[in-house]
Amino acid sequence: APKELRVLTWEGYADEPWVKAFEAKTGAKVKITYTGSVDEIFAKMTASKGEDFDVIAIETSSYKRLTQEKLIQPVDLSKIPNAKNLLPAFGNVSAIVFDGKPYAVPFAWGSIPLIYDKAVFAEPPASWNVLWDEQYKGRIIAMDDANNAIVTTALLLGYKDPFNLTDAQFASIKAKLLDQKRFVSTYYAGFDDGVSIFAQGGVDLMMSMGEPQAPMLRKKGLDVGLTIPKEGAIGWIDCWAISAGARDPALAHAWIDAMLEEDVGTYISEKTGYGNTTNAAANEAIGLTYADKLVFLQAPEDFARRIDLWNEIKATPVE
Amino acid sequence: MTSLSSNGADAGMSFRNLIHLAGVGKSYGAVNVLKPIDLTIGDGEFLTILGPSGSGKTTILRMLGGFTPPSTGRILLDGVDITDMPIFERPFNTVFQDYALFPHMSVAKNVGYGLKMRRRPRAEIDAKVADVLAMVELADKAARYPAELSGGQRQRVALARAIVCEPRVVLLDEPLGALDAELRRSMQDFLKALQRRIRTTFVFITHDQEEAISMSDRIVVMDHGKVEQVGTPKDIYYRPHSEFVAKFFGENNILPARLTGAGASLAAHSPLGSHALSGPAPADAISIAIRPESFCVGMAGKSADDQRSMTGLLESLTFLGATTQLVVRLGEGSPHTVKVRLPTPDLGSGIGIGEPVPLRWSDADVSILTA
Amino acid sequence: MTSLSSNGADAGMSFRNLIHLAGVGKSYGAVNVLKPIDLTIGDGEFLTILGPSGSGKTTILRMLGGFTPPSTGRILLDGVDITDMPIFERPFNTVFQDYALFPHMSVAKNVGYGLKMRRRPRAEIDAKVADVLAMVELADKAARYPAELSGGQRQRVALARAIVCEPRVVLLDEPLGALDAELRRSMQDFLKALQRRIRTTFVFITHDQEEAISMSDRIVVMDHGKVEQVGTPKDIYYRPHSEFVAKFFGENNILPARLTGAGASLAAHSPLGSHALSGPAPADAISIAIRPESFCVGMAGKSADDQRSMTGLLESLTFLGATTQLVVRLGEGSPHTVKVRLPTPDLGSGIGIGEPVPLRWSDADVSILTA
Amino acid sequence: MADLSFAAPQAGPMRTGVPSRRRQLRRIALALVVYGLPVLLILVPLATFLLYSFWSTADGQLVKSFTLANYIDFLAKPVYRSVFTGTLWLAGIVATTSLIFGYIIAYLIWRLEGRLRYFLLLISVIPLAMNYIVKIYAMRNILGYNGPVNWLLIQIGVLDVPSKAFIYNQTAVMITMAVIYLPYAILPIFLSLERISPSLMAASADLGGRPGPTFVHVVLPLSLPGSIVGALFVMVLALGDYLTPQMVGGNQGFTFGRAIWSQFGMAFNWPFGAALAVVLLVSVVLIILVAAAISRHARVK
Amino acid sequence: MTAAERMTITLLWLIGALVFAALYGPAFMVVLLSFFDISREGIDWSSFGLQWYARLGDNPQMLAALGNTLLVGASAVALATALALGLAYYMKTGVRRGRALIELVIFLPFVLPAIITGISLLIAFRGLGLERGLLTVTVGHVVLVLAIIYRMVTIRLESLENSQIEASLDLGANNWQTFRHVVLPQLRSALVTSGLLAFTLSFDETLVTFFLVGGDATLPIRLWAMMRVGFTPEVNALVSIVLAVTITLAVLGAMSLKETMARK
Ligand SMILES: Nc1ncnc2c1ncn2[C@@H]1O[C@H](COP(=O)(O)OP(=O)(O)OP(=O)(O)O)[C@@H](O)[C@H]1O
Ligand SMILES: Nc1ncnc2c1ncn2[C@@H]1O[C@H](COP(=O)(O)OP(=O)(O)OP(=O)(O)O)[C@@H](O)[C@H]1O
Ligand SMILES: NCCCCNCCCN
Ligand SMILES: [Mg+2]
Ligand SMILES: [Mg+2]
């Protein structure tokens, strides 16, 4: 039987050009399962003890949990010659290193920026505070993601370590988010979800889940701008990791190696609007020049607590 | 002579016309199940429809009730055409062959349903329901549900439900079919008494000829979707027009007959002798009928004008309870036998099988079947 | 004297035992619907179960067929305990009270079903089905579906379906209930003839006492889940043990009686005089029974030893076809009346309502009801 | 008439005595399959899993010792309690709406005859063939700010500017769920109407029952139990639906299903999630039992 | 009919028409979008084209997913029907102890949130060493739809007279033959309707499928993931085609169904 590689990833991270090339090169068959949320990856990986997949792509804040639960295994960089292509900023991401061993390889990145309708804002809004502005009540949408909401609010409130919050900080963030709920029309779930709600009309501002939303909106005929407010914004990095239950670790390494080909990175940036980790020029071409203003995600102190808080926000009725 | 009529049969024709079936017939697709009939039903009459299974009895009832539209003809009530009147406006009530009790209502609720539909006051409903349930001997079952009753009990509920509204016509499709003999007899009395009291027209289907005779003002005899004869019980019993009626209506002896003469001297010759005939000569071979109970055994007794006699041979003898049946061959070597029915106690003097039996009958009891 | 037995009743006890119900009883939860009975059914016997609605007739049949397990007792077939034998292995076939025809099969398919289950060749199935459909006069309905038949036609299909397999015992739950008089009589003849020819045991439920008498070797009379009396038709007709049997089994006159004397001089006194009693004295108030047809009217006729007479007053008179019924009050001011049934032709001499009626009867026809 | 060729009386296939042991074995084997399969396929996995609800987590690690803490937590945390009741209420309203409109549709179809009847019945369930995610998207377009509903209302002059009243709130969730789940109610309701014997309708008419009263006293009571089953079916679907509220519910779109789901992702609080699931399960079973008891009590068969 | 009754019925038909319009709103929308572009300004009528239908052919992933969905649906319905039938008939033909309990068990997956069913089945299959794939998805769907089929079959069975079964046994048919010749034919319409319902549930099932699926996706799984970045317009074309095929089948079905129903 031909070798088989089982991939759990996001739409757009395993597109035909490089999947075909990989299959041709290794003679393996690639079976892709697309996921809709980090939650799904967690639930499915936990329930199957990692047996169902060989490689997965997930962002940095998750790795502490994944290694703790022994759902992934360390990567052997010596089997990934293309690791040399990694841009310096992504050569040493601390959130994916445990006991000195790397558990993943960065692949795509982006931010959680603010997107606004240029017809309403002549100038880009300077602060996240605009999401608390009575003027835009009911014309704001935000993403439904506990960690992103809490970290961004922590940045707004000026907390030093948004990944290790004190009880008092938790309380303030909760109050702040509850206060915001009045202004928010809806919490959207995915890239397209946000875009299509925005495009339907009646929306001026969106807490975005990533750069690709801006070109998507423009394609729908909206003149929108994207900005990183002065308080800074979250930066996320999706990395490839090898599942604990990988059947053919060598093949898994080969996949990751293939993902670090420069043309894959180029494609990622050009076609989808994400930052890539191998071609700086392609990043600049789409305006991803503000990596220094971003706070890259790390594992938070207590996910469960953050999710409880977020559930509470969502469950609390507003007038 | 004492009048035999204790059931108003002789008054049968004095009813005011209530319903008129004018050329009413029914076909399902290409199959004709009821040939067009003309029938008048009197106001207050007890009319029975009698006929073999599948002869179209239920079909007539369903058209009267409005459940099935006739294929041809009109139905008139008091001269008004009601052929297209909706069921619920017809002042008729039906006892269905399959009961059609409401499974989700108690017996009392079932019986009270019609009154409730007519918006009668609650107290009146309760009182009438209690009365009629007592009549059908179900007073103690008022709170039960149909599923908890036996077949006979269910049918009595159906009966109670139909009569409690005192409709102008009650349509009954074999309402006594499932009852045991004892209850059946008392329900017959009850029905008949009720009918007399409320002077309501009853159209009644039964299979039981004795029931038909004892209850009806008139009887409609049906066969194969065709009305064979309509008449009072006596008419039909004593003067059947056709072999079918003669046979169907209680046990009968049918014997072949030949025609001779014409006009006043027209006569029919049968194994029982020759019988005078009036009216126009029938077309073809005919037969005569005589009832088993019209025979007497023994020579004694006054010999009236039309008294006939003959000696036959006893072939068999069957005890039937109240009566005993003899099969008598009409003479040695004769191809014909007759059945003779005698009250059992009459057989005091023993006659052995094969021994001669002196038969006696009146010519008036012989019907000539021309239809 | 001529033997009245043309239906083998006297030979009833000569059957080899086929089935034995040993202490078979049935309760549903706390409700006892059949008290334990002991009953032997002969091989080739025609046994009828007769009783009012709800008396437990169907329950007995269902236990025989294996549809309901008895609560107590065992059922033996040829001495082998079959109480737990599955239905489909019992060599019995049933005609169900509600027909239980398969709605999705044509008449022919319904009738052929049992043969098909026994894997008989197609040609044989077709031939037998055609034969038996002809017998029940449904040959032309073979292709119809049950929903397209009249009630009576459906029941005939059920009958055909049960007999086509030639089982050892045929269980019939009121198979003739829905048939018209004519067909009913011919089906009775057919059933009886069939039963004689194939010498198959028939267990038959009916409401019709005349049917029970004319067809059965023995009759089981039931009431309220209890066997009231088991015996040949003559036994039960002439020697009812209880008021219930006397009443249920055809029309009967029941009159109260007082006991006097003891031992040999024990006698019962009723409005019809005093009647000698043998056997142990019954505990309490008793009654006597005499059938309406046991009376004669008129003083003429041989006066046998036990002949009695009395003059009553005519209260009413009803024509019933073959017979006429008189209600006669036993003397002016008497609280008691009797029903008298005479063959209709006997009423040659007219008696008016209210006029005296000379009654005559034989003391042998009086039953003393002690149970 | 008497030419039925009865062969020698043959005593059918009598196999008394011997096979009763084999039969008994077969019976036991059958019972084993019948009871065993659901137990193995459903009960064992679910029961094993629901055991989690009696465990706990500490520092993101599972602690496998018995505790009722999760249930106490549920009662103690007002958020989950109110989401729970809110979701029940929402599903109840969706079920009621589906019952009412489903009944109207089923009743109208039931009154038809012949070909049209079954054609319309099929037409009413065909929308089920459309993927439900796609359907939710389409509903969001329809109800949206610039969607056809607003367009229509502006065209006929009811509105001057598009309204947000139809989208991103509870109303939108109810409308969308009702549209999606209605066909699931129509079918059982139609089937329960169809089981009513025509002779009962005839009897009611015969007793003077006009169409209206006949409906109230005969049709409705006889079809209601089946209809309620259909409504419960919808209710269960609505309770479990976690996409619709998310997609069209806006900031009012948080439901119990999503609360449960959130425990199995990054929160990694499986024990609490399992406890929430048990709470939901027990409530649904209770609702069904109560409905069954009511319909039994109503004596409707 | 009185005027009031006629008005009531007319009113009901009006409501019915609105409800039908609502039911078909999404379908209408999707079909429209499969032919035209839509923007903030409304439908661009000049954009009519069949390109999305044409592009479907270039999207083997999506077509394979549709194929998998149909395969899983058909197998799951077939298996669940067999199981539900056997179970329902077994319960019908005797006083069975534990009936209520088994029925509750069957209903569990139906009333539990899909994620619970999904995760617990995944854990169980992993324990059994059963490779995740279309087979495990099928088993998962069987578990999910069993309750509906069982329920509908039971309702029909309850209205089947006991004497029908008794008559068949009495005529010498054993339990299996009785089931085959008497019970099954009379369950046909219940089986068809419950099978259709079950199929549509399987056709849309996403969450349980997500946990049990291997590399071969079903259509809802594909759509579920696509949802994050948006559907390509081919989706509308695909859904339109599925709808068109279903309606055609339904029209054909209505004809034959009517005949079988008329027989009853
Ligand atoms: N819906 C129908 N389609 C076709 N034929 C029918 C239909 N209903 C009744 N028939 C036929 O019409 C004829 C008359 O039926 P009907 O029910 O009137 O008989 P009936 O005299 O009441 O019989 P029974 O005494 O058996 O009840 C029968 O041959 C029957 O098969
Ligand atoms: N399943 C049951 N549960 C409780 N009671 C029952 C059940 N089946 C029958 N009965 C009761 O048992 C009694 C005897 O019923 P059975 O059917 O044997 O009467 P039957 O003599 O055949 O009456 P019918 O002449 O009306 O058919 C009745 O009172 C009936 O109500
Ligand atoms: N289309 C791929 C999207 C991947 C997004 N990962 C983002 C994680 C942010 N929390
Ligand atoms: Mg009839
Ligand atoms: Mg009975």
Features:
heteropentamer, A: 319 residues, alpha/beta, 8-stranded mixed sheet, 5-stranded mixed sheet, 21% strand, globular, B: 371 residues, alpha+beta, Rossmann fold, OB fold (Dihydrolipoamide Acetyltransferase, E2P), 2 domains, 6-stranded mixed sheet, 33% strand, binds adenosine-5'-triphosphate, binds spermidine, binds magnesium ion
Quick description:
The complex is a heteropentamer, with one copy of chain A (319 residues), two copies of chain B (371 residues), one copy of chain D (301 residues) and one copy of chain E (264 residues). Chain D contains twelve helices and two strands; from the N terminus they run H-E-E-H-H-H-H-H-H-H-H-H-H-H.
Task: Summarize the structure in words.
The complex is a heteropentamer, with 1 copy of chain A (319 residues), 2 copies of chain B (371 residues), 1 copy of chain D (301 residues) and 1 copy of chain E (264 residues). Chain A is of the alpha/beta class. Helix content of chain A is 35%, strand content 21%. In chain A, helix 1 (16-26) links the parallel strand 1 (4-9) and strand 2. Chain A has 11 helices and 15 strands. The model of chain A has no long low-confidence stretch (mean pLDDT 93). Chain B is an alpha+beta fold and 371 residues long. Chain B folds into 2 domains: 17-239, 3-Layer(aba) Sandwich (Rossmann fold); 295-362, Nucleic acid-binding proteins (OB fold (Dihydrolipoamide Acetyltransferase, E2P), Beta Barrel), CATH 2.40.50. In chain D, strands 1-2 form a two-stranded antiparallel sheet. In chain E, a hairpin with a 2-residue loop joins strand 1 (37-39) and strand 2. Chains in contact: A-D, A-E, B-C, B-D, C-D, C-E, D-E. Chains D and E meet through helix 1, helix 3, helix 4, helix 5 and helix 7 of D and helix 1, helix 3, helix 4, helix 5 and helix 6 of E.
